[in-house]
C-alpha cells in the first residue's frame, strides 16, 4: 500500500514540478505519461523504495528551481527535506542528489559577479540547509553503515557493462519494458555480446511498433522538449534537467569503472521523471508548431491522444507479445 500511495503522489509531484519550472502546458501530459508508463506502474506494486524515489526526485528539482529564482528559506527547506527523503528511500539516489546539489551551488556562485549579495545569500542558505540534512542523515544511517558495507562487499553482483547494456537501459526507460532473454547475457563470465545484440535485433523486428517508439519517437520527443526549453530561454531548468539525466550515467560509470559492480538499469529510476517531462514538452512543442494559433486547444487533445497511444503500445497483447515484459510480471492487457 505505501508504494501504491507514493506512486500516485509521484504523478502529482511530476505535475507540480512541471508547473513550478515554467512548463504549465506540458504538466498534464507529463502526469498522464507517468500514469500509463509500465515502469511507473511496476514500482507502484512493489514494496521497495523506488515509488518514493519517483515522488521525491521531482520535488527536489522543483524546489531547486524555485530556490535559485527567489532564494526563499521555504524552498531551501524543500530541497533539504526532499534530499533527505530520497537518500532514506533509496540510497542509490545519492548520485542524483549530489549532482543536483552541486548544480544549485554552482548556479548560486555564478551570480557572484552580477549580485554578490544574492550569491552570498543563496550559498549561505544552501550550506545551512544541507548541514542540517547531513547531520540528520548520518544520525539515522550511522548504526547500519558497518552492516551495509559488509553486505555490499560480499553480496553485490559483479560483472561488466557491455555496449548492449545501454540499449537495454534506453529501451527500459523509453517503453517501461525489458527484453526477455537469458540472464547469462548480462555478465562478463558469459561473454555473449554478439549473441545478445542479435537477440535484441530479433526482438525489435518482431515488435516494430515498440521498436519505432523506442528508437524514433521517444528520442525525438525528448530532444524536441529540450530544444524547446532552450528556445524559450528556460536555461536554468535546462541546467538542472540535463545534469539530472547525467546522474544516471554517473551511477553507471562509477559502478562500471570503479566498484566493478553490475547495476541493473532501473537503479537509475530517479531520471525517469525528467525523461517524461522532456517528452511532454516535446509533444507540446510539436503541437504548437502545427497550430500556433490555438495551442491551448490542441495541446490537451494531443495529450489525451498520446496517453491513449501509450496505453495501447505498452499494454495491448497484439503489440507487446511475451517477448517484451515488465520487470517482474507481465502487464495484464
Can you walk me through this structure?
The protein is an all-alpha fold. Helices cover 73% and strands 1% of the residues. It has helices at residues 2-20, 26-36, 38-42, 50-70, 73-89, 94-110, 116-141, 145-155, 163-175, 193-206, 208-231, 235-259, 272-290, 295-315; strands at residues 178-179, 324-325. Strands 1-2 form a two-stranded antiparallel sheet. It is globular and about 50 Å long. The model is unreliable at 181-192 and 316-333 (pLDDT under 50).
Strand order of the largest sheet: 1-2
Looking at the structure, what is the overall shape? globular
- Count, helices: 14
The H-and-E topology, N to C, reads as HHHHHHHHHEHHHHHE
Largest β-sheet summary: 2 strands, antiparallel
- Gyration radius over CA: 20 Å
Structural class: mainly alpha
How far is the first residue's CA from the last residue's CA? 22 Å
